[in-house]
Amino acid sequence: MGDIWVVTTFFLIFLLIILIIYHLYYRMNIKHITKQLVEIMNITDTNGLLTVKARQKDILQLVNILNRLIKDIRSSRIQIKRLNMKFRKGITNIAHDLRTPLTTARGYVQLLQTNVTEEEKQEYLKIVLERQNMVQILLEQLFEYVRIESGETTYENVPIDAKKVFIDTLTMYYDDFNKKGEEPIVKLLEKQCIILGDEQGLKRIFSNILFNSIIHGKGEYSFQIIEEESYIFTFSNISDPMTREDLDIIFNRFYTKDQARNKNNTGLGLTIAKEITMQFNGRIAAFYNDGKFSISVSLPKAE
């Protein structure tokens, strides 16, 4: 009986020693992981990941999970940095687009205070009013974008005739095309184009695209409706050359082509058009072929 007690005691002591060693080894690995984690998180420009020599399944699993989190955090940091850069560039663009017409208007106001003829006075007043209108459009686009992004502006999804809205919006810009000496080619479907959406929202989509066409288009304006699985509204015109990169980001917030910086464009008009189109479960895309730039808006048919 005494021998059994001695053996049992030695076994328990041996087991306790093994547990202590395992605990110390486990703690050493956790401490090593913690040290690496602190170093990695404090250095923003490193691509390092956690490493461990342990063979325990739970420790290896912990390291794998932490490494995935590190990759996600690193990716988020890069994304936030890019977004901040875009935001700063966008603010710079807006400031430029607001400052340019205001500076021009101020110059003509100063000229009005000098000895000018009545004809010159009327011409200068016309330019001042045009610049004032530019600023108003820019501010309206900015406020509308902020309202959409914040969720303050919402749109209904009720049956509407998109063809009628399309025609009404084209009519609004008829004089603008006349001033450019252009007669747009318009091709319509004979039937109604019923979709689920909001009339004012749809008018804003078409209006922003048409405004972009007038500002940047070089001629041969063509607008049409095509019926496939959805109703597709296309807007085409001759334009300056556009790269694949331009087409990929043209609907991004604050996108502008450098050559367009003097043309009253913050890049918000097409961004707003995209946001509203998405709320209608539609798709919007840009194309450039043989010197022609096109935007297509695809809207699902109402069932």
UniProtKB/TrEMBL annotation:
GO terms for cellular component: plasma membrane. It is found in: Membrane. One of its GO terms (molecular function) is phosphorelay sensor kinase activity. The keyword Transmembrane helix applies. It is a multi-pass membrane protein. Keywords: Kinase, Membrane, Phosphoprotein, Transferase, Transmembrane, Transmembrane helix, Two-component regulatory system. The chain crosses the membrane at residues 6-25. Residues 93-303 form the Histidine kinase domain. It comes from the Bacteria. Its main location: membrane. Signal peptide: none annotated. It catalyses: ATP + protein L-histidine = ADP + protein N-phospho-L-histidine. Its EC number is 2.7.13.3. InterPro entries: HATPase_C_sf, HATPase_dom, His_kinase_dom, HisK_dim/P_dom, HisK_dim/P_sf, HssS/ArlS-like, Sig_transdc_His_kin/Pase_MprB. It holds the Pfam family HisKA. The keyword Phosphoprotein applies. This is histidine kinase. It comes from Tissierella pigra.
